[in-house]
Design brief:
2 copies of one chain form a homodimer.
Chain A (H helix, E strand, L loop, with lengths): L1 H5 L6 H10 L8 H11 L5 H14 L3 E3 L7 E3 L6 E5 L5 E4 L16 E12 L1 H4 L2
Parallel strand pairs in A: 3-5
Antiparallel strand pairs in A: 1-2, 3-4
The first copy, chain A, binds a DNA duplex (25 and 25 nucleotides) through helix 4.
DNA sequence: GTTACTGCAAAGCTTTTGCATCCCT
DNA sequence: AGGGATGCAAAAGCTTTGCAGTAAC
């Protein structure tokens, strides 16, 4: 938690609860997932505070906002380079290591200043493909 | 247009207008972009019909729904394998050829049945990086 | 003549915002 | 004590839906 104080966050119980829930979380939760989990521990927790906290964490680079689920945004506390397997049926998102280099040849960049790469593999997870 | 009749579409003026607008379109338009463009030619055009048409085209595999813009869905009539450069400032989306093989090693698939791969490079486009 | 599509308005969801109150530092 | 954070409710977007009327086949 020291690292959050260092980036200039005012440490409220609400923020600590969100940070604690996200710590090491591999589920790529939505804002509602976070709200529901944290609300159990902290019944006064509001949606506005969840979004407010996520917005600051995004800004500070401590959380990634994923736009891979057509229905809602998902959040990833793992900001290291990795790719995603996504089930188009149950919307499960699973981390996998990147299998190739980040580099895009300059000729392909069209003068963009590229900052980040996202790679997603869409399909059916083991459970959903059974049906 | 023959190919749309062949996949079992009832060809209404509204659908033809949407199909014509999407044909060869490289802008990755949103539903609203499509609505505005088609509405000029066909003033009775409604949003419901835009979404209805897109939904059918998606189903038939004639259009890809992109979830790379956090604000709204974008549509891509080019269903061949290619990657995207995305400007996080103006939301412009530019096509680039894929620079590596589709294959994901079986060991990385976690038993998913992978159907599609999406690769996006996020950053600033030439115009937006000037500021 | 049927069946399916259109258009309008209302509803549904996720996310954002305004503002008074509260509390971390 | 002061400035920022919280919580509530309302609002804003995008997208979906219900249904009566209409048009394609």
């Amino acid at each position: 938690m020291e690292k959050y104080r260092r980036i200039g966050l005012k440490l409220t119980p609400q923020r600590l609860a969100v940070l604690h829930y996200l710590e090491g979380n591999k589920d790529h939760p939505s804002a509602e997932d976070i709200y529901r989990a944290v609300h159990k521990k902290l019944p006064t927790m509001s949606f506005a505070t969840v979004y407010n906290t996520l917005s600051i964490l995004k800004e500070k680079g401590s959380v990634l906002e994923l736009t891979v689920d057509p229905d809602k945004k998902r959040y990833d506390p793992d900001t290291g380079q990795h790719d995603h397997l996504i089930c188009i049926s149950c919307k499960r998102i699973v981390d996998i290591p990147s299998t190739f280099r980040f580099d895009l040849p300059d000729s392909a960049k069209r003068n963009f200043a590229v900052i980040q790469r996202h790679v997603e593999y869409y399909g059916f997870c083991p459970e959903c493909k059974k049906r």
